[in-house]
Amino acid sequence: GARAVLLRLEHLFELGESRNGSRPLSVDLTTLFSAFTITSVQEMALGGDIPLHSVSRLLWNTATGTPKPRPLARLDPRRVTLEPMQIRTFLASVRYEGLGEGLGGP
């Protein structure tokens, strides 16, 4: 049957902390694991319980006006980018590759 895995990725460096480590980092989710193949992926809110597209952010009125909400970019699991100090959460549907019953497989 279908299996799901919750993935949480975190960029550990702060902006300006390291010449190389503080740059945006891109990860290919489709090649990250050998025990299973990711068949689909959906970005979730940090807690992993709500799809990110369903989250309603508060918009604050400021002296310069109310900011417009930014639309979510289309998710490409072959290139997920993390900015410094950013944490992103994903719910991935997976197919296990040759694992036995007791090891989390089918």
UniProtKB/TrEMBL annotation:
GO molecular function: carbohydrate binding; catalytic activity
Any Pfam family matching the protein: Glyco_hydro38C2
An individual GO BP term: carbohydrate metabolic process
Coiled coil: none
Residues of the Glycosyl hydrolases family 38 C-terminal domain: 4-90
InterPro entries: Gal_mutarotase_sf_dom (IPR011013), GH38_C (IPR041147)
Name of the protein: Lysosomal alpha-mannosidase
Species whose genome carries this gene: bird metagenome
